[in-house]
Amino acid sequence: MLWVVPGAELGVVGWPPTRGERVFLTWHYWWQAHLIDAAVDAANRESTAARTRRIGTVARAHRIRNVTGWTNNYYDDMAWLAIALERAERTRGITEVRGGLTALRTDLSSGFQPEIGAVPWRKGSDFFNAPANGPAAIALARFGDYEKAGRIADFLDERLRDPDTGLIFDGIHLPSGKLERPVYSYCQGVVLGLETELAVHTGEFEHIERVQRLVNAVEKHLTAGRVVTGGAGGDGGLFNGILVRYLAHVALMLPGDEADQRAARRTAAAIVTASAAAAWEHRLAVEGDPLFGYDWTKPAQLPTGTAGASYFTAGGSVTSSKIPERDLSVQLSGWLLMESAYLVTAAGL
Q1: DSSP-derived pairing of the beta strands 289-291 and 171-173
Q2: 23, 3 contact by CB (below 8 A)
Q3: C-alpha angle with apex 76: 218 to 226, nearest 5 degrees?
Q4: Crossing angle for the helix pair 75-92 and 29-45, nearest 10 degrees?
Q5: Alpha carbon distance 200, 270 (integer Å)
């Protein structure tokens, strides 16, 4: 429970938790947004009154803990919350989030800079990155603004795609044009999700082609035996889970009956299921529940205390705990993976 407020609950961001984590002294906005999304997944998979209530209690607590309401200064944070709340209303009928959706839609739409064709990482920043623009455009598409979403997709493809690997770089500073070249798995995921969304709703074949190309690049460069490799704790704990969530979208939603589209859907599905099998094989069982590893190809480690807990850096990112498995982000990633694998296998893919 959040601050002894009835009907308001958040996920403790570390286990075992520090005293500060137990009372939510620090605020992990985007981790909790993904917790809402995971709660929606669970309710959609097996609907119960308790699971539906949980969505509302976490969403309510999110608004309270954010203190100023639903929004903040970071477009990536707001985009993730918008995606989660939109799904909560559309699929589970959680009407109390409508005010949040209105506020988030307004901020995301007004943050779009038409002269660039993208939103910045945060308000007032010169950095335009995939982690903000991918989910922002997915949210805008789900709000029905396909024009802005399409322009962002073009920006990501034209400005951030590595011509050598086909993968998506982190971001670019404008007007200087300085590229930030790290390749993160969740950058690939959000672009796959965006392009699939646009392929479904616009019928424009270029979006299908981009998905096909990026799925092939992900398989070649970010997997081994079709298992997503690597991983981290802290903020990075969510990266691979986001990638597989949107690979599942490709597997289930990418339009087209030609050989290339069928191959892209099969490859995306195979990465999801192979990754889920590996993560499940390497999990720990703690009081009957799974504890997932930060790297799905390696045995999970059991956190034994609060020493080496994660913390916020001066730049606002969250470091990994010494044992990454103690971070909520790592466990959320495992949950997203298993929910994605359920959807793919339930569809017979």
Answers
A1: unpaired
A2: yes
A3: 15
A4: 20
A5: 21
Q: Which amino acid is at 261?
A: Q
What's the pLDDT tens digit per position in 187-212? 999 999 999 999 999 999 999 999 99
Cβ neighbours of residue 281 closer than 8 Å, sequence gap 6 or more:
none
Residue 5: predicted pLDDT: 72
Which residues face 172 on adjacent strands? Answer: 128, 179
Model pTM score: 0.97
CB 154 within 8 A of CB 204: no
Round to whole Å and give the CA distance between 101 and 47.
23
CB 228 within 8 A of CB 234: no
Work out the number of other CB atoms within 10 angstroms of the CB of residue 303.
Answer: 23
Kindly report, residue by residue over 225-269, the tens digit of the pLDDT: 999 999 999 999 999 999 999 999 999 999 999 999 999 999 999
Nearest Cα residue to 160 out of 193, 186, 176, 183: 183
The kind and range of the H/E element at 286 are strand 284-286
Query: 149-161 burial by CB neighbour count: b if 16+ within 10 A, else e?
Result: bbbbbebbbebbb
Strand partners, 83: none
Using CA atoms, how far apart are residues 59 and 95, in angstroms rounded to an integer?
Answer: 11
Question: What span, in angstroms and rounded, lies between the C-alpha atoms of 12 and 149?
Answer: 33
Q: Which two tokens stand for residue 216?
A: 């092939």
Could you tell me the sign of the dihedral formed by the alpha carbons of 77, 81, 82, 84, in that order?
positive
